[in-house]
Amino acid sequence: MAAGTKDDPWQLSTAPGPSRYTMFHEGTELVCRAGSTTLTYRVRAIDYLHAWLTTQGDWVDLGAADELKNPAGGTVEAWGRAESNPVGGWYGLRKGYRGRFGMYLPRSSSNWSAPNSRRMRETTACECGDPAEKL
After folding, report:
1. Which SS3 state, helix, strand or coil, does residue 91 take?
2. How far is CA 115 from CA 3, 70, 101, 104, 134, in A?
3. Which residues contact 87 (CB under 8 A, 6 or more apart)?
């Protein structure tokens, strides 16, 4: 399995799998490269996303949306930009490219090697697994 570093990034695909992208962690940021586009997210989003998903039950729609579009309520995308999340707003760091949290973060979470790593199904929704489970 890739280390999730700049030299050895995770090779991922969007749910349900048609598009490929890479992601790696660098300091306090997650760097996502999808084609010629680079997006950055707060690295702590992974653990916070896991904690939030655990409170939601079995399934949560991803709801991926560009920054200027409103995501559907109750989705991973909506939570990733809500003022009620642990950082009080956007997990995306690069203005104009802060959206698509619901598309890219859940897939990277399944590769994260922290104790709170997650298991994500290759569908348009997330399923919470055992927080101690590692893939």
Report:
1. coil
2. 15, 32, 21, 20, 7
3. 42, 44, 45, 48
